[in-house]
């Protein structure tokens, strides 16, 4: 098989892997999890007692790791934008944000930009599993993948997040807390776990300041909240090499995340435009 055929096969394999990671090849993966913000009435109308009761039941079940799930018709546009949570997928970010990871990684590889890859907030590991697959496709065997997460879900709102009071409180959602051992097993299932896949377990303010990372080529922040995003920016952005990328998963979706990014950029005189990825994420290349 010649080089062109190898490249064509590699691209096809990555596209298939996106389908698997997002569970887009399974129409049964489309669903809706009932939680607090599912019951907001867009027209401002008062909620019915049925909605109130369902919300209470959903909150009660969540304490025991259970939930109420409603299947709905599969919508490929929602899946591409990461607008739904695939029931048995490995990532929520959708196709477009996986495309963005591929673009950033292939750009730093082609331009010879050194540095590791890190994601803060990994859930089941799908985004970094895809990143590892991209590196393997290009024969990049030295770059490390860092998965930073509490591996027990989101923290409770505190500090500026409480002041902002615009993002949903999701600290009680056990669905979001995936143990490190399970994430490692997901990497292993696809032959992606090796000595260059590293894990930083704990809250970001505990792990990131002393993380043994010298240089970063691509950093992907998916901490949702103001405090989580700001801690990641303060500790990781100075390590990003010139020509590297910073990806903000929730820039357009979470008020706290956007405020942290905007404040950090203003404080550090960063005027590189933020390019939008889909209805949620944004990124820029460090000059």
Please tag this protein with its features:
287 residues, two-stranded antiparallel sheet, Rossmann fold, 15% strand, 9 strands, alpha/beta, 2 domains
Q: In terms of per-residue confidence, which ranges show pLDDT below 50 for 5 or more consecutive residues? A: 1-9, 36-46
Structural class: alpha/beta
What is the number of independent domains? 2
Q: What fraction of the residues are assigned to beta strands by DSSP?
A: 5-15%
The count of strands amounts to: 9
Give the neighbour order of strands across the main sheet: 5-4-3-6-7-9-8
Supply the CATH architecture of the largest domain. 3-Layer(aba) Sandwich
Q: Would you list the SSEs in sequence order as H and E? A: HEHEHHEHEHHEHEHEHEE
CATH topological fold name of the largest domain: Rossmann fold
The number of helices is 10
CATH domain class of the largest domain? Alpha Beta
| Overall mean pLDDT | 85
Q: CATH homologous superfamily of the largest domain? A: Vaccinia Virus protein VP39
Shape: globular
Radius of gyration: 19 Å
The end-to-end span amounts to 39 Å
Largest sheet entry: 7 strands, mixed
**What is the helical fraction, as a range of percent?**
25-40%
